[in-house]
Amino acid sequence: MGRRRRTAPVAPLPQRDGVDPVRIRLPADPEGAWPTLRDHLVERFGNAIGAAKVEAMLRDGRFVSAEGAVAAEEPYTAGRHLWFHRDFAAEERVPFEVGIVYRDERLVVADKPHFLATTPRGRHVTETALARLRRDLGLPMLQPAHRLDRLTAGLALFVVRPEDRGAYQTLFRDRRVRKEYEAVAPYDPGIALPVTVRSRIEKERGVLAAREVPGEPNSESRIELMEQRGGHGRYRLVPATGRTHQLRVHMNRLGLPILNDPLYPVLRDVQDAEPEGGADYSRPLQLLARSLEFTDPLTGQECRFESRRALGAW
Predict the structure, then answer these.
(1) Which one of 10, 19, 182, 234 is most buried, by most CB atoms within 10 A?
(2) DSSP characters over 153-176
(3) Whole-model pTM over 0.85
């Protein structure tokens, strides 16, 4: 018999600005280091937000269990679930809208603009495609089936019902989705195309750029020239795998770095790569997720979706 999947407990707090509350599970405490909830929460979050902030959140009833707001002096109980909402830092609004290519009772196929993250991550929380779609479409349970880089525009697949998400995530995991991208990059008549590029790509946590290293290839991309104008070409990129920054790394390897790429071949502008102040919206990365094609795992229907966006440099 297969292992039974545990069902996550239902959050007693509603979403805020399209973002779920944080859920924590209280760990084992065999040595009795945390007599009360306050003791554990201050130790757990004090370094990040300060003990005084944790105390204030407890006083304001912002830590909640399935039964309601918890009190600071409640006895610590290992295994218990708590929820709370983070305080979001003010985020600059990305001044482009999320398009909708397709929507039904199961799926939303979004046409994401450049500069907008797909899901909350790091300093991008409320200004993400997921948070916007949940708010704008009134779909609080919406979840992504995969992730598209923040600087890349184009198609991203979202699942309406939580019970369906695994089936669509499995399509991407098992490489049963055909993805095509377009890019604008330098044109070099000396580079023979089409070509299939294979290499081993590693991405270290906390390091902006991925890198190619010796070893068994874990990434594969087919690169074709669609048309050429002067010193630039428009390329079709078909990835067989989905490593972080794969297409950008492989184009750079060929000596054809994608136009306006802030990382490859060299770090050009950390604000574009991971903006803390304001991004230069006049220089979007010229990379577009043009199409998604797959057999729907629930209906058996053949599906193909195409972005309605165009790369501005072309």
Answers:
(1) 182
(2) EEEEEEESSHHHHHHHHHHHHTT-
(3) no
Report the topology of domain 22-84: 3.10.290
- Lookup: tokens for 277: 């102040």
Average pLDDT estimate for 32-43? 96
- Comparing 60-69, 80-89, 281-290, 304-313, the range with the smallest average pLDDT is 80-89
What six digits make up the tokens of 93? 């609004």
207 DSSP 8-state letter: -
- The pLDDT, as a whole number, for residue 313 is 80
Encoding tokens for residue 238? 């078909």
Distance, in Å, from the CA atom of 114 to the CA atom of 150, rounded to the nearest integer, reads 7
Question: For residues 185 and 237, is the Cβ–Cβ distance under 8 A?
Answer: no
**Contacts made by residues 40-49, CB under 8 angstroms, sequence distance 24+:** 40/76
Long-range contacts of 5-13 (CB under 8 A, 24+ apart): 9/66, 9/81, 10/66, 11/83, 12/64, 12/65, 12/66, 12/68, 12/83, 13/64, 13/83, 13/84, 13/85
Antiparallel, parallel or unpaired: β 195-202 and 287-295: unpaired
Out of 3.40.50.970, 3.40.50.10790, 3.40.50.720, 3.30.2350.10, the CATH code matching 99-306 is 3.30.2350.10
The domain segmentation of the chain, as residue ranges, is 22-84, 99-306
